[in-house]
Amino acid sequence: MTGVDGNRRYCRDGGAVTSRLLDDIVLLYHYRSGQTHMVISPVPEILDRMADGVAVTAQDMQGRLALDFDMGQELDAVAEIAAHLEALVDLGLVRAA
Amino acid sequence: MKHSLILRIGPATFRIGSAWRGPIDQLARLYARYPAVTDEIADFTVRLQPTSPVRRWIRPSIFITGDHGLADAAPMSLSHGLLAAEMGMNLQMALGWRRHLLLHASSVEKDGRALVMTGESGSGKSTLAALLGERGWRLMGDEFALLDLDTGAILPFPRLVSLKNRAIDVMAGEVGEGRMGPLLAATAKGDIRHMVPRADAVARMDEGAVPRLLLFPRFGHDADERPVGSAEIFMRLTQASTNYVALGQPGFAALTRFVGNVPARAIDFPSGEAAVAMVERLWEQMA
Fold it and tell me: Minimal CA–CA distance to A47: which of A84, A96, A3?
């Protein structure tokens, strides 16, 4: 969790995204920016679990993902998820709530 | 402008104006079999004008401009006027066309299906398309392939084929002098000669084809063939498109559909003949 506030909450950006699967890559077209992003697991899974619009912390997201995936050590997983959420904020696909 | 001509190539019309007669006469000869266009409002204007008033007469030097211009386009010698006109048309298409996703690629057609070839300048895609166009395929274009945003078809843009350096003799021997333009020696890309596409390529230039195979050719290497991953194909095609970003979501939808539907291979080849044989074999395998 170094450098990221554990209570920070995130939600999907309102500018909708269209996605297409190509092999193991997911292409995301972000309408608001007109940018195309190429992403791999776990980014598509994280975004899918934000589709309800509810603001979540990295800890909440770990819980959502753990319903479907073996997440290993919880602390490591939360730190990794937090880093992905911050990267998605930088891309404009996720906003800090 | 003092001298002018309107040309239609595939879906695009160009009004080419020139301060000099020479380039227009050369274009008129080489595009003589293309459909006549009169009184039409052209999609693009290309202007070949002197870099300064005196340069119309003394050491004539051409500045290429038009609806869309590049501020740093280098002036060219009048002896390269035909090349300046062709570059001007390419520039207008690359910067201004919005009706289709424009791919920097050559394409040929057989049995209603299109083979699309993309790669850097010097990859051999232009020469290979020209060769196939003389060997039972229909040349659709040597420079730009237009991907229809609704149907996913490839539409032709069969301008003059631009042959460089060693490809000049190969193709001149194949098609004869009557279909070749003047030698433009020592241009920025080396020696260049233009070749008029076969009559069927011109007559059927409004006829698209469903893309069936995508190749990434590379000339000058031992024969080899490799699969290419979808993600790499997508990346390379966005780089090969001049208007992908401008088209927005329809461009994204069209390109992802293309990558999802069209099998692709990278091929290396030591000669044009070897490449033609590889293409024919791959085409049969995909049947």
Answer: A84
